[in-house]
Amino acid sequence: MSDATAARLDHDDPLAKHRDLFVGAESSLVYFDGNSLGRPLRVTGERLARFVDGEWGGRLIRGWDERWFDLPLAVGDELARIVLGAGPGQTTVGDSTTVLLYKAMRAALAARPDRSEIVLDRDNFPTDRYLAQGVAEECGVRLRWIEVDTAGGVTAEQLAEAVGPDTALVLLSHVAYRSAWLADMGELTRIAHDAGALVLWDLSHSVGSVPIQLDACEVDLAVGCSYKYLNGGPGSPAFVYVAARHLERFTQPVQGWMGAADPFLMGPDYAPAEGIRRFLSGTPPIVGMLAMQDMLALLDEVGMAAVREKSVALTEYAVQVAGEVLAPAGVGLASPRDPDLRGGHVTLNHPLMREATAALWQRDVIPDYRDPHGLRLGLSPLSTSYDEVRRGVEAVREVLDGLPG
C-alpha cells in the first residue's frame, strides 16, 4: 500500500476529524497500543482541573450528597445506553476488573448451588483464568477447560460439547486478548442457557470498539475495564453489568458499606442494597470516572455503528499492508482473516517479534507483544489514522530486517 493510498483513506474517512481531539495524535509517534491504554482526550485535562477547583476544592464533602454518591450508577447507565446495549439500573462502576470478575463469579456460583463446574477456555485472559482457579478452590467446584486455537477463539461447537448438567458458570471473553477473535455472544449465551448455566462475559477488549447487545443476547453478567477503548486513563475503574432479572437474588461476597441498603446507618449487620448498588463495596473512585465520561460523550455523538465500521476498515487495511510488507519476511497473521470474526486489533506472528517490539519502542512505534511470537496492533477507531498504520507496519519490516537471525 502506497503513501497515497493511506492519504486518500484518511481524507475520505468521515471520522478523521475526531483524531485531533486526542492528546498526542498530532505527533509522529505510532501508537498501536490503544487496546491496552487509550490516548486521553484533550477536554479531559480541563474536566480534571474544573473538578479539582470546583467540586472537590469548592464543594468538599458536600459533593457526596450533591452528586458523587450516585455517580457510579449514573455513569453505569450511560455505559449501558451508549456502548453496552443495556437498559438502565443494571450497570455500575467501581473496583478493578479483577475484583468485579471475582464478585460476579461468586454471585453466579451462589445462584447455582447444585452445580459443580466452571467452563472456560485455555486462552482466556490470564486474570480470568487465575481468578477462576482461585474461586474453584474456594468454592469446591471444578474447572472444565476448552482447548482453543491461539489464533482463534471459542466456537459454538466447542461450547456445546463442554457444557452439561454440572455447569454452573461459563466464563468467556467477547474479544480474545491475543487473537482478537470476536465471539458470537448471542449464540454462546443461548448454548449455556440451554444447559442451565449462567454466563459471565469479559468485555475488556470489545467495549468501545465493537457494538454490544447485552440485553438482546440475554447475558447474565458482564465485566469490563475502562482504560482501553473507553480512554479512562491508567487504573480507571471497571464496570459490572447484572441482568435485571437476577438483581434481587444475586449476592456478591465483598460486603462493603457502599453496597449496603442504608450506607449511612452503619448498623451492626449488613443488608444488601436493592438493585445494582449491591455490587458496590467501598468508596467509589470518583476521580477515576471523569475521563471515561468524556469518551462516552464522544462515542454517543459518533455512534457505535460508525465506530465499528471504522474499526473494521482499519484492521482490514492493517491486514492488507501486513500481507504486502511483512508476509515476504515470514510474518503470519494470528487473527481471524474474516473481519466479522475479528475485534479491534490484529496480531502478527514471527519468531523475532519479542525483540522487534523492544526495538520498535525505541523508535516511537508502540505495539505490544504477546506469546507465542505475537505483535499486536491495537487500532483505536477514533484516534488511529491509516497513515499511522502504514508507517507502523513499514517500521516493523525495517526492524525485522535489521535483527540477527
UniProtKB/TrEMBL annotation:
GO terms for molecular function: transaminase activity. Residues 112-320 form the Aminotransferase class V domain. Its cofactor is pyridoxal 5'-phosphate. Pathway: Amino-acid degradation; L-kynurenine degradation; L-alanine and anthranilate from L-kynurenine: step 1/1; Cofactor biosynthesis; NAD(+) biosynthesis; quinolinate from L-kynurenine: step 2/3. InterPro entries: Aminotrans_V_dom, Kynureninase, PyrdxlP-dep_Trfase, PyrdxlP-dep_Trfase_major, PyrdxlP-dep_Trfase_small. The keyword Hydrolase applies. Its EC number is 3.7.1.3. Homodimer. This is Kynureninase.
